Amino acid sequence: MTASAAALDTIRSEVDRSLKEFVDRQRPLVSAPELAPLISAAEEFLSGGKRLRPAFCYWGWHGAGGGDDPALFTAAASLELLQASALVHDDVMDASDLRRGMPSAHRRFQALHEKEGWRGSAEQFGEGAAILLGNLLLIWSGEMWRGSGLPQASLAAAQEVHDHMRTELMCGQYLDLLEQAHADNTFDSALRVALFKSGKYSVEQPLRLGLVLAARGREPWIDRLCEAYGRCVGIAFQLRDDILGVFGDPAETGKPAGDDLREGKRTMLIARTLAAASPAQVKVVDGMLGDPGLDAAGVGRLRGIIEETGALAACEDMIKSYLDDALNSLDDAPITGEARTALADLAVAATSRRT
Amino acid sequence: MTASAAALDTIRSEVDRSLKEFVDRQRPLVSAPELAPLISAAEEFLSGGKRLRPAFCYWGWHGAGGGDDPALFTAAASLELLQASALVHDDVMDASDLRRGMPSAHRRFQALHEKEGWRGSAEQFGEGAAILLGNLLLIWSGEMWRGSGLPQASLAAAQEVHDHMRTELMCGQYLDLLEQAHADNTFDSALRVALFKSGKYSVEQPLRLGLVLAARGREPWIDRLCEAYGRCVGIAFQLRDDILGVFGDPAETGKPAGDDLREGKRTMLIARTLAAASPAQVKVVDGMLGDPGLDAAGVGRLRGIIEETGALAACEDMIKSYLDDALNSLDDAPITGEARTALADLAVAATSRRT
Predict the structure, then answer these.
(1) Which residue of A has its CA nearest to B180?
(2) Does A171 sit within 8 Å of B136, measured CB to CB?
(3) CA torsion sign, B47 to B50 to B54 to B55?
(4) Torsion of CA A21, A22, A23, A26, to 10 degrees
(5) 3-class DSSP state of B343
(6) Are B281 and B305 in contact (CB under 8 A)?
(7) ipTM
(8) What's B3-352's CATH class?
(9) Taking CB atoms and an 8 Å limit, are A120 and B182 in contact across chains?
(10) Which of A17, A251, A334, B123 measures 20 to 30 Å from B264, CA to CA?
(11) Which keywords fit this entry according to its UniProt record (chains A, B) (predicted)?
(12) Alpha helices in A147-267, H assignment, sequence order
């Protein structure tokens, strides 16, 4: 095991511990027995996960000379609450049934309604409860961040980045809705969505938060590094996500095979497919993409076209090329050698993952 | 015009100004032309409103000796962002078409999708965009609060109340969903929902925030006052809301006549109706309440039963009695005379409003 893989294990267990402590501190506020399903859903959506966002934040902090401070794990772990909130709301917006192989939050609450034989629409109850759960996680992410115990000077320096990240995430997700609704799906628009809906808050901003917390200010080299490394890894991270959404192994992704095809997600993979497809292939894609009833044969047919048009290979090439650029951007960044190695390893991990 | 009515006018215009300034400061972050509908929807849902929550906060601050400070208006105005977020999400959860006589946020985005002839489900787009808009408003409420410019010592003292209020709001709304889903609808459960879903964050917590900000600590008399006055006015506020949802004038409420009947809201008004109704009346209520297609005749019939059973009069009596208790609770509170008068006037305004 390399030093940075060992460090990632430490980060994961510290993040798990911080999240558990935080949720435990909320319990007195949400102690009414009827609220138990809300808390257990929150806990479930916070468990597991690759903890990549906290890891970017952690290595930003250490890269800019931050010392060992357990409060940093708490601040970094708060990014997982933001992420959990986004996933819960995303699944409502996409009407997704599964998340990591388990029922999505709204389906979970819907099942509770059905099991108890309550009045009214179980589906509407499920959606409402999931919206509220996502809000709770969103509120808690800010609360955990502020209450991390990091020095006020660090938190004050990073506050603007933190605020910006959250507004940007909501705007990025709105751009993603528009991308799905618009028919254009150009390379440019697909790239922009990949960056704003996911790349920024998954990589660039967590890294920037760690760096600014440690440096207690937003120095020009920090923005240069975050824009170069963060942008490249962020886009490549989302391109990997797009590929997993079509070609991922359900046993690893926890989502049905080809789920993004059934949802009709307009990604770079699809933009490249349509750009290189024959008129006959375009007709097939237009007819099948976004069909909620798409079966295994249909998924296989679309996968075939995505491969035959060279779109899959082109996206893999893009990932490689963004990864190279990201690794190069680390060369002259004034960060510690240990952080440089760890960020290089994280870039590889984030873009070659299988879940 | 009384002194406190004049003060309310000042509060309203200062809150409007603060909100406008805050949204203007966000504009550079959300400057992409495609994001314009998100911003204009935010602005629309922030305009108007009675600004009661900021007024409770303002009079808490002044009551506990807070001086004139424009930053207080900014902190108080942030409560309107929280409220706007709750309304936008509420309308999604209730599938409401109208808000203050205009299309609700999700219907607005749905109409944009339809007008532009975009791909996919206009309804799903509308809901997704409204969830994101509500999130943006929720994030901004915290940001505006923290960035108000009030002294750090004040903000630090009030932070726990602020955090608590937000968690409590989400839990209260979840309890409301449960109340609608459960069949019991007892007086106790209706009262609890009225308090937690609306009363606490509308009255008790805004007042507590103002008091704690000024006193820079949560002194025992503050909690005593907030629990007595806040609880009474908060519950009476929601009881008035329940009555307006059934008997309100659409020209004033901006909601269709009897909308709560169509949505099947289980409120104190309904609990009291069912408790006093004859078996024949219960049958009518059970058959008609929650019917989305309920017409004017049906609304009239249900209104008749609510009046005949004495439920309407009983709820009006409850409001009067809570109001009396609230006014009494002000007597020995160690607050300024001006604040005492203003809080008495506000209690009347909040419980006798027609919109």
Answers:
(1) A119
(2) yes
(3) positive
(4) 120
(5) helix
(6) yes
(7) 0.95
(8) mainly alpha
(9) no
(10) B123
(11) Magnesium, Metal-binding, Transferase
(12) 152-181, 187-193, 205-215, 220-225, 231-247, 250-253, 259-263
